[in-house]
Each structure stands twice: as C-alpha cells, then as structure tokens.
Specification:
The complex is a heterodimer of chains A (718) and B (123). Chain A is an alpha+beta fold and 718 residues long. Chain A has five domains: 3-127, Four Helix Bundle (Hemerythrin (Met), subunit A); 161-272, Alpha-Beta Plaits; 330-386; 388-565, Histidine kinase-like ATPase, C-terminal domain (Heat Shock Protein 90), CATH 3.30.565.10; 570-717, Beta Barrel (OB fold (Dihydrolipoamide Acetyltransferase, E2P)), CATH 2.40.50.180. Chain A is 41% helix and 19% strand. Chain A is elongated and about 120 Å long. Chain B has one domain: Rossmann fold (3-Layer(aba) Sandwich). Helices cover 42% and strands 20% of the residues of chain B. Chain B is built from five helices and five strands, in the order βαβαβαβαβα. Chain B has helices spanning 14-25, 37-46, 63-72, 90-98, 111-121; strands spanning 6-10, 30-34, 51-55, 81-85, 103-106. In chain B, strands 2-1-3-4-5 form a five-stranded parallel beta sheet, with helices on both faces. The radius of gyration of chain B is 13 Å and the shape is globular. At the A-B interface, helix 1, helix 2 and helix 8 of A face helix 1, helix 2, helix 3, helix 4 and helix 5 of B.
C-alpha cells in the first residue's frame, strides 16, 4: 500500500468524521447533550487530528489540536454546553472542513486566527480556574528500604523454557561478569545503576528485555548487587531484589539510556554516576497490583451471588449498535452488481425458455428464482447507505444561508436512516442543495413579513425521507409564502415560455419554475444564482430515474417531493405489447390499469379521446402512435389502458394492446450503447433475449399532449 | 524469538490502521487489525498474539476498557500492550500505565519509534 493510498483512506475518513461531528453538534444544538453525543464529536475531531499529524498537515493538525482541547474540556464537563458554545463549535467545524479541503489541495488554507483565539478563550474562560497539574518530577530512585534478596527471574507465569534459559544465562553472566573486563575496556565515561522494582513486571513488562536493550547500546555489566536476595523460604517472586551497575561509553547519551526505561517509569530505580548509590530494593506492596484485577474471582465463586460491584466494574460495553464493517473498493462492488444484473437476465431467459418447453413448474426453477432475487437484494443492500449522510450537510447550508440572507430557519429532519443506493446518495446532494437554497431564498419570507402574516419569525424547513413501494420519497418543505402563481405566470409569458392566453392548471403553473432559464426572484440574489437552478434540479432528478413534484399552498408554504428509485441499476417495470413492439413502462409512473368499455371513452375533437376515471377525465394516448408501432390496436375499448402519473402533465392513460408481465428489469443506458433519445429512458433485455425500450413516461406524455407525436427519434430508436 | 512477532493493532481509524499495518508488516511483523475494543476481544478469543497495540478513543469499547478486560483474565495478564496516545504528558503516561498498559506510542509516530517500542516489550 502506497502512502497515497493511505492518504486517500485518511481523506475518506475525514469526510466521515466531519459528517459525524456535524450530526453530533446538530444534536447538541437540538438539545441532545449527553456524553455519547459529545464523545462522538470529540472522537471525530480527534481522529482527524491523529491522521493530520501522521501525514504532516501542520495547519490542519494545529487547528484540530485547539479544537480538540476545547472539546476535551466540554466532554469532561469543565466547559458547560451553552448555545453560544455550540454555535462556536459549529463554526469551528466549518473551518475544520475548509482545513481538510486545504489539505487535499482543493482549497486555500482558511484564515483561522480569530477562531483559534475564540476557541482558546472559550476553553480558558472555564478551565482557567483549574490549572493543569505540573508534570510529575522525573522518577527518582526511592529511599532505602532494606529487604532480603534473591533472583527476580522466576516468574510465576512459567515463561517458555528458552526464555528461562536465556534469563538464567543473562543473570549468571551478569553475576559472573569479571571485574577485569573493566580494565580491558576503555575507561567508562559513566555508570548507570539499575534496579527494577516489583512493578516492573506488572502490565506485561519484562525487565530482562530492558537490560538486553541496554546491552545493545554497548553497556557492560560491571556489578550485580545480589546482596538483597533473601533465603528461599521468604523470597517473594514479585519483588525485584537484584541491582546492576553498567558501564557505558561516553558517546552513549544519558537520554538514550533513560529512553529504554521510559515505559517502566518509577517502577525501575535508576541512578547515574559512580558516586550514586545503587537504588534500593523496594518490596512489593502488600496488595500487589497483579492481584488486584483478580479480586472479582472469589466473589464470583460464591454460588448464586448477585453480580458483585467488582464484577460489574469493567465498564459494560456499549450496546453493539454499530455492525462490523469492511471497506470495499467501489469498482469491485459495481462489478458484482453488474454481474448480478446479468444473472437476473439469464435466470429470466432460462425460465422463459423452459416455460416454452412446458417445464415451468419444475421446483428447482422456483428455488433458483428465489435465490436470484435474494442475491439481487443483498447486492443492492451492499450499496445502500442511509440518507443521513446527505441530510447532515444541510445544517451547514442553512447556516451559510442565514448569514447571507438574514433569515433564520429551523430544520426538522425525519427518516435519516432511510437507505438508498450510494450513487443516488452521491448525486442527490446537488439537487437537494438547490432546493434548500431555493426554499430559504424564495420560499421563506423575511422575518418582518412573517410576523406581519402571523407566523413565527423563524422559518421552518422540513426534510424527510421514506420508503414507499420500492421508491424513496424525499420531501423538502418550507412554511413560507408558497408559489406566487400570478408572478410565475407573468414571468413565463414575459420569457416567451407560454402564450399570454394559455389556460394552465395550478400544477402546470407551479411546474413552470422548472423551465430552463426561469427565475422568479424579482431581483436575482447571490444565493440562488442566475437562472441556473430549478431546471437543473429537474434534470438531476430525472437522471437519477426520479421525478419531482410541487405542492404549494399560497401563504402556508411549498413542498417539493422527489420520488427516486432505490437503485439505478434495476427498476420495476410493466412489460407491454404495442403492435409489433414490446415496451417497458416504469412501474413508478403506473397508477392503475383498466379495460375500458366503449362508452367510457369519449372523443374530444378529431384526434383526442378522453376517459372518465371515477369522475375525472384524463386524456387517452395511443402508445403505438407515439412510438410508431405497426399493427397495434387502435380502439381504446379493444386494448388496455395504463393510467400513468407524470410530473408535468398530470395523469394520462396509455393505450396498449396487452400487458404481458410485471417484472424487475435491468436498465441499460441508451446513451452509452446508442445515444440519448427523447421519450426513452433506457433499454432492457427481456427473458427471451429481446431488447425492449423503457418508456420515459413524462416526456412521452408531454410531447403527445402538445401534439408533437409521433416522436421521430423514438420511432427511429425503436 | 525464532518466531515472527504477531501484533494486533486496534484503532477505529482506517488510515491509522493502514499506517500501522504498513509500518509493522514491512518490518517483518505479522499484523492483525481490529477496529475497536470489542472487535479486538472477538479476535483475541480465537487467535494468539504477542503484542497488542491499541488506540484509546474508540467507539463501543475504548482502549482502557480493552486493557482492563484483557488484564482481568490470566491469559493476557502479562501480554505486552502498547497504547497509542496523542499526548506525551507524564500525567497521560502515568494514566496509561495505571490502566495496565505496558508502554505507549505517541502519535504521530514514526516507523522506527514504533518498531523500537514493539521490540522493547515483545517477549
């Protein structure tokens, strides 16, 4: 793994940490200020700091350090959580996000001087009363305590024999070390005296390793003090009875020798210089540290004893809410999904072939079909992610909008855990941002106007996501003024989008805001931009295989509803026959299907027919005319009508010859295999190996109703 | 000492895991990784290890909690456990040792220091 790859992991992790911190702080702001929430924020920032240090992003590290210091005090309760504090933390998080961007080379390093001062001040204001304790004095050899001595080598844990031999060798070697060695060697520059105490073997420590490391520095043992070793019957194996004096060359620094003993701290006596006395033996304290953790054992041995406090003491692990996870390269996953798509097609083809041979009822076939569906669902769920990752970015957008528009907006979010395909999630951010900006900029009124109309000064933005029959519904609602239809109409006329005398329904007027180049703001603000906006939103949503609808009530607000597929790769469709063609109508558009009687369908002029569906008249569109199919049924009462819902043109009834099947289809893009064709959203391979076009109901109906059918392009593609 | 030293690293940060893995496996250590204390316990239940290196701040079960759980039993009472800490203050080190850590590695670490720390405690 190269360092670039590790850095890429780090940046991906930064994004996750930022999102986690963001949602944690949002929860704090909303009133959830428990330790778990604060801890999550701390951990997120801490994690960025760790990586920043490791990769040498100095500015990022410095900023996270100050940020983390404050968060640490907040976590410990030294700094109370107040609203100004949460706001400060949120601003710090924004800057942190910019810092991460700078580290990636995507942006300039932000100017954080003022913010750093604020963070430090917030921390100092509260923590100043309790100055951090001065670092403990470096471990000094303990004062004398005389005790009998023996070898510290026999550990009661029974180390492996090799080690024991090595230890004995080392010890005897050290004890036998002849003094003449001193004479032979160049005069030692300095002497180091070492006596490990009882604690040196605690926590998995092993003094022998330290002595070996010392030897590796060139230290020569010139004396082993075994005078403290007691008679065998009083020997405590947990106490360090031996002391050694080592001679070191002048070029070995004292620091490098002390370094070796860094971990054991004052559990190992050290003395430097020939004049310094050998550190004294320190007997093991009566309740040895090793014994302490064993305390629960006797308690647990009591039969039927209630859980003792000691046994309960080890912090009960947090509920394992988070599943274990594994990181997979997205490319591999996509390959799997593609293969599963092919599997679905192959399975369908086989089923159809066998059905043709009269073998459809075979039990194995049913099992295979079930398994295929299971695999497909599992594969899809691998790509699924909670939409919360998109929603969590919204608070920042709102804060920026508050700054630029002066409108205060409260956010209500629901359904954050709703899962949908990763690609959909990734591509959802842009339209969602647009819609939110639009809602705040155009929807929600200024505070004065709101108060004048009897509303709370603070606007409310509601964001929700839910599963609805295989689709995801995302709603972005505001409690603003609603769409001003007269102004929209006037603007559309002015822009030449519609005729001045056009008769449009409320919905049709509302949808005019999606027209390219349409902008309703009397003055173009710097927030919603210049014309690039709602038409792009619709385009984005459409590319995701979704639809967008508007529900606006003058005076009480507007709600945009995005209907999106769970995945881009597979869709539920109704397979229909139209003359010599087989087409797929996306199930998302289908409301119902019916076989009309002759009297239910009424003519409207020469070329248009309407059907009365429970009191509502909807236009009948012969699909064969739209696609240029030959030999199709012409009379509505002879065929089947599929009532579809469209975003721009309301409902329509598509006339087809027959409905063959309702199935999941693997969507193949026409753009990549052929080219984009109006009225067609893609193609699929049917069970019999035939290619069928998937109808883009919205554009097809819109075209047909405006009298542009048949679509020459569609006819050509078909 | 004839066998390869087996190390379990415990850290919730994927990049830190990647760094540790890179630094240790290129030095000939056998490296296994867990993303938090509970995952480490699960792994240790089925595998043998020579040295454990753990981060402190982790979800579900943190580093101190992990050490506490390991020191409770006899199997890991003398297991060398190093903690990864971002603070080098004596106070934090004392706390790590009090919690049962054999030693510590201060983040950001360099590969040489990491390896030296492991060798210092590997039995």
């Amino acid at each position: 793994m190269t360092s670039e790859e590790i850095q890429a992991i780090f940046f991906a992790e930064c994004e996750e940490s930022l999102a986690a911190a963001e949602s944690g702080l949002a929860a704090c702001k909303a009133g959830t200020q428990d330790s778990d929430t604060v801890n999550a924020v701390f951990r997120a920032v801490h994690s960025i700091k760790g990586g920043a240090g490791a990769f040498g992003y100095v500015a990022l590290q410095a900023f996270t350090h100050t940020f983390e210091t404050l968060l640490s005090d907040v976590r410990e309760g030294a700094v109370p959580i107040t609203e100004p504090l949460v706001d400060l933390l949120l601003r710090a998080l924004d800057t942190l996000s910019d810092h991460v961007g700078a580290a990636r080379g995507l942006a300039e390093v932000p100017d954080d001087v003022g913010l750093l001062a604020e963070l430090t001040a917030a921390q100092a204001a509260n923590a100043g009363a309790a100055p951090s304790p001065a670092p403990a004095a470096p471990a000094a050899p303990e004062p004398v305590a005389t005790a009998p001595a023996t070898t510290s080598a026999d550990e009661d844990t029974g180390g492996d024999p090799f080690d024991l031999d090595a230890m004995l060798d080392d010890i005897t070697g050290a004890m036998d070390a002849p003094k003449p060695a001193l004479d032979a060697a160049p005069a030692p520059a300095w002497l180091l005296k070492v006596r490990p105490h009882a604690g040196a073997m605690r926590n998995g420590g092993e003094p022998l390793l330290l002595l070996r490391e010392l030897a590796a520095l060139g230290a020569r043992c010139i004396e082993c003090d075994c005078g403290a070793v007691p008679p065998l019957d009083t020997l405590d194996p947990g106490t360090g009875y031996l002391g050694w004096a080592f001679a070191l060359d002048a070029d070995v620094s004292e620091a490098s020798a002390r370094d070796i003993f860094e971990f054991v701290g004052d559990d190992c006596g050290l003395a430097i210089g020939s004049d310094a006395p050998m550190p004294a033996v320190r007997p093991a304290p009566p309740p040895t540290p090793v014994a302490a953790p064993a305390a629960p054992a006797p308690a647990a041995a009591q039969p039927g004893a209630a859980p003792t406090p000691a046994a309960a003491a080890p912090a009960p692990p947090a509920p394992p809410a988070l599943g274990q996870s594994i990181r997979i390269e997205l490319g591999k996953l996509d390959k799997l999904i593609d293969a599963v798509g092919e599997l679905v097609i192959a399975q369908a083809m086989m089923a159809q072939r066998l059905a043709g041979d009269g073998l459809a009822v075979k039990e194995e076939l049913t099992i295979l079909e079930g398994l295929t569906r299971d695999i497909q669902e599992s594969a899809m769920s691998i790509r699924a992610q909670p939409i919360g990752s998109v929603f969590s970015r919204v608070p920042r957008i709102l804060r920026e909008l508050t700054t630029s528009t002066g409108k205060h907006v409260r956010l209500e979010v629901s359904g954050e855990s709703t899962e949908l395909d990763k690609t959909v999630i990734e591509r959802l951010g842009e339209p969602l941002t647009h819609l939110i900006r639009n809602a705040v900029d155009h929807g929600i009124e200024s505070a004065e106007a709101r108060i004048a109309s009897g509303k709370p000064a603070e606007g409310t933005l509601t964001l929700s996501a839910e599963h609805r029959s295989g689709r995801i519904l995302i709603r972005i609602g505001d409690d603003g003024a609603g769409i001003n239809r007269e102004r929209v109409f006037a603007k559309a006329v002015e822009k030449g989008l519609i005729a001045p005398d056009a008769q449009l329904s409320k919905e049709e007027i509302d949808h005019l805001i999606f027209a390219p180049g349409f902008s309703t703001a009397a003055t173009i603000t710097n927030v919603s931009g210049r014309g690039v906006g709602m038409d792009v939103v619709r385009q984005n949503v459409k590319e995701l295989g979704g639809r967008i609808t508007i529900d606006s009530e003058p005076g009480s607000g507007t709600t945009f509803t995005l209907t999106l597929p769970l995945t881009l790769a597979i869709s539920d469709g109704m397979v229909v026959n139209v003359g010599d063609q087989t087409l797929v109508v996306p199930l998302a558009n289908v409301v119902e299907s019916l076989r009309p009687t002759q009297t239910e369908v009424q003519g409207l002029g020469a070329h248009r027919a309407m059907i009365n569906v429970r009191g509502k008249f909807i236009p009948v569109l012969p699909l064969h005319a739209a696609v240029g199919a030959q030999g199709a049924i012409e009379q509505a009462h002879e065929g089947v009508l599929i009532v579809v819902e469209t975003e721009g043109a309301g409902r329509a009834a598509l006339l087809v010859d027959a409905i063959c099947d309702q199935r999941q289809v693997v969507i193949k893009s026409l753009d990549t295999h052929y080219r984009s064709v109006e009225g067609v959203s893609g193609a699929t391979i049917l069970g019999d190996g035939m290619v069928a076009l998937i109808v883009d109901v919205d554009s097809l109906v819109a075209r047909s109703l405006s009298g542009q059918s048949p679509s020459p392009l569609l006819a050509e593609a078909a | 000492m004839t066998q390869t030293t087996r190390i379990l690293t415990v850290d919730d940060s994927p990049s830190m895991r990647a760094l540790l893995n890179h630094a240790l496996s290129t030095q000939g250590f056998e490296v296994a990784q867990a993303e938090d204390g509970l995952a480490a316990l699960d792994w240790l239940a089925l595998n043998e290890v020579d040295v454990v290196i753990t981060d402190i701040n982790m979800p579900r079960l943190d580093g101190f909690g992990l050490i506490e759980r390991l020191r409770e039993g006899t199997r890991h009472r003398d297991r060398p456990i190093l903690v990864l800490t971002t603070e080098s203050s004596d106070e934090k080190k004392a706390r790590a040792r009090e919690a049962g850590a054999t030693g510590w590695i201060v983040k950001p670490f360099d590969a040489a220091k990491l390896v030296a720390a492991v060798r210092r405690v590997a039995h």
